[in-house]
Amino acid sequence: MSKKKQDGVYFFWSTSIIICMLVALFVLGFASCAKGTPAASPSASPSASPNTEASPSASPEGSTAPVTSPTSSSMETALAETTDMGQEYVDKFIFLGDSTTNGLAYYDVVNDNQVWTPASGTLTLSLWSTATIVYRDDDSEISIVDAVTKKQPEYILITLGVNGVSFMDEEYFIKEYTKLVQAIKEASPNTKIILNSIYPVTAAYSEKDNGITNEKIDNANTWVERVANSLSVKYLDSESVIKDTNGAMPDKISNDGEIHFNEDGYKLVINYLRTHGYQ
């Protein structure tokens, strides 16, 4: 092959190799750019990330409160069994309520000045805001809010609703009970509040045509517990040690065969309070 032709072949192959290399570099560069494109895609932005939406640091406007199952919230609200807290624990309480609470003083189960009821001996839930109670420290008759403001009790056990079940529907009952608890909280922020279950009545009384039945009481107790849960206070299921197998108050612990306990009945309640302490 002549030198001229040999040079031409070398030139051709050298040029072809250089062109191939340039093409390869171009393809590699294009591929690299294509891989980077998703980083700018809206679907990959932080604001669209599922983890960000569920994060506690997300905007308050978009956040929602944790959902708690009825079972767990009930367990947190209802006081569980504890060791016996003793009489010293009971002595720290104020007992606010209707005629079923007044019996605590009548039978000397607790000190008289721990029991807050009206002079009539009973209190209806619907009238809590206008009623007065006997403030036994000085025998004055003052409102519940004034008494709480004055006393600043460490604990208060509220037992209300047995009269209300005869005429108060769910909305009315919960509204008034909620307002009562909120008023006590505002008047004495450090007071530990316990909402007590409404006590059952005897089977004979439940069968009377007076609007108060054990079925209604059981239903109302679910409302009481809901109020306790919604306001972050405690619920005492003391009715559980009062009921017989038919869900009624046993005649042997009733002093009138109807709605009120005798001394033995009140001692059952106080013992339950001592063994289901607020800790």
H/E series: HHHHEHEEEHEHEHHEH
Q: Spell out the CATH superfamily of the largest domain.
A: SGNH hydrolase
Helix content: 40-55%
How is the main sheet built?
A: 5 strands, parallel
The computed structural class is: alpha/beta
Short description:
Helix content is 43%, strand content 10%. The chain has helices at residues 3-36, 50-54, 70-77, 86-90, 99-106, 144-151, 170-187, 203-206, 214-230, 263-274, and strands at residues 93-97, 115-116, 132-135, 140-143, 155-159, 192-196, 234-236.
Q: What features would you describe in this structure?
A:
The chain starts with a helix and ends in a 5-residue tail after the last helix. The strands form 2 sheets. It has a 5-stranded parallel β-sheet, with helices on both faces. Helix 3 packs across helix 9 and helix 7 packs across helix 9. Helix 7 links the parallel strand 5 and strand 6. Helices cover 43% and strands 10% of the residues. With 279 residues, it is α/β, with parallel strands linked by helices. The N terminus is likely disordered. The longest helix is centred in the N-terminal third of the chain and has 34 residues. The chain has 2 domains: 41 residues; 201 residues, Rossmann fold, CATH 3.40.50.
